[in-house]
């Protein structure tokens, strides 16, 4: 599998070089207007400048902080409520339609409201990210708890487990599989929440950098911001993969491959 | 039978049976508000240290009987006694070996065997030590750190056996535990089970649809009628000499003889169950 992935590396790198070269040549020879499309060399220079002067770090830090907070709070609430609902059919029965409505709502419309309620700082982005992360984790926890193998529960009961023991030894580990399977999505959404929130109104963060550049028709800045954002997203995703590998070490390799 | 059990109840706890079902019936609600009568006034007792096998056609409620004896299900009517005490909740004297794989996939073999002791609040060190001893006893020394998916089906059953026996249950309820194993592994497991039973003198209730397995292992075979409304239609003492080797005991002349006797009784029920299922399929129901 690994060797198969690296076998394609020359082609992948070749495609990247060809696209960048075509972009560079097209803007250099005047086939497309660099005002609208910028130029790879300019973008690279801008990114280098950001990191050399250190001006980008506070934006990266802000976006990272918002992402982490949105994920932790959203996931925490999701696990807690998912668990409570799965264990109390009455509770889930009453709240079910409202959860469906809330989940059906396109969350982007909340961003301006949250800016109004929580201000231009970190808090409004976190709140927005939480609304995105919560539902993913909530539904997966709920499903994970509901689908626990009854035989596993009965066997553990027969071995002497109390209801609390069942939570610790069977229900939570079982739900964790579902929660982790949605980890890439939920962390990704926490990041989306942060960036979209910043885009709607803020004073710092990667979303702010991009919005700011757009406002001044600085296409180089827009593309540079997008590049940094993409690199940041990939780094976060790789981190998630590491965490997942560690927590699901007991899983058969085949299931890993399916998930990947 | 119910009367005999009631008489035993007066006797002291030292002499009563390990397990007794008195006129136990059990119904299940099924789709459309109807009820399905799984068991109809089933009565039998299992003596202490006895190896009882229960055979019957598929779907006759064998597993239901074990779940009732374990306290995982409550009877609709009738009474269940374990060591003369009416069963109110889970049967704390009993361990249950399920037909399915029930090891926790996120725990290693050692952690799975340690689960019972930890739930009984043993100190971790002692639990680990005992679990290692039990794993060695079922022939899995060196496999402590494997996860269930890294073990073969037979090995997983051995871990499950160690997991059940480590906390010292007086009764072992076994629900077709070896049915998913290949023939060779199965015979090895059966012999190992007999050895363990002879050493530990547990009471065993062993449910199976395999009559040969039932005879080879047990002291007594209980025959159940086809469902619905399963009843006990016969009990047969197996007097084959012990210790037994499950492969060799099948060649014993008395084995063939008792097999013929029980099969004559069981055959009609198997055919009836088969006809019912075929009829249900023909009517468009699911068998």
Radius of gyration of chain A, CA atoms, in whole angstroms: 23 Å
CATH architecture of the largest domain in chain B: 3-Layer(aba) Sandwich
Helix/strand-derived class of chain B? alpha/beta
* Biggest interface and residues each: A-B, 19 and 24 residues
CATH superfamily of the largest domain in chain A: MetI-like
Give a quick account of the main beta sheet of chain A: strands, pairing sense, barrel closure: none
CATH topology of the largest domain in chain B: Rossmann fold
Distance between the termini of chain A: 11 Å
Name of the CATH first level of the largest domain in chain A: Mainly Alpha
Radius of gyration of chain B: 19 Å
Structural class of chain A: mainly alpha
CATH topology of the largest domain in chain A: MetI-like fold
Beta-strand share of residues of chain B: 15-25%
Low-confidence stretches of chain A: 255-260
Description:
- The complex is a heterodimer of chains A (260) and B (287).
- Chain A has 260 residues and is an all-alpha fold.
- Chain A folds into 2 domains: 32 residues; 217 residues, MetI-like fold (Orthogonal Bundle), CATH 1.10.3720.
- In chain A, 83% of the residues lie in helices and 0% in strands.
- Chain A is built from 14 helices and no strands.
- The N and C termini of chain A lie close together (11 Å).
- The C terminus of chain A is likely disordered.
- With 287 residues, chain B is α/β, with parallel strands linked by helices.
- Chain B has 2 domains: 206 residues, P-loop containing nucleotide triphosphate hydrolases (Rossmann fold), CATH 3.40.50; 69 residues, no CATH class.
- In chain B, strands 6-7-8-3-9-10 form a 6-stranded mixed beta sheet, with helices on both faces. In chain B, strands 2-1-4-5 form a 4-stranded antiparallel beta sheet.
- In chain B, strand 9 and strand 10 form a beta hairpin.
- The radius of gyration of chain B is 19 Å and the shape is globular.
- Chains A and B meet through helix 9 and helix 10 of A and strand 6 and helix 3 of B.
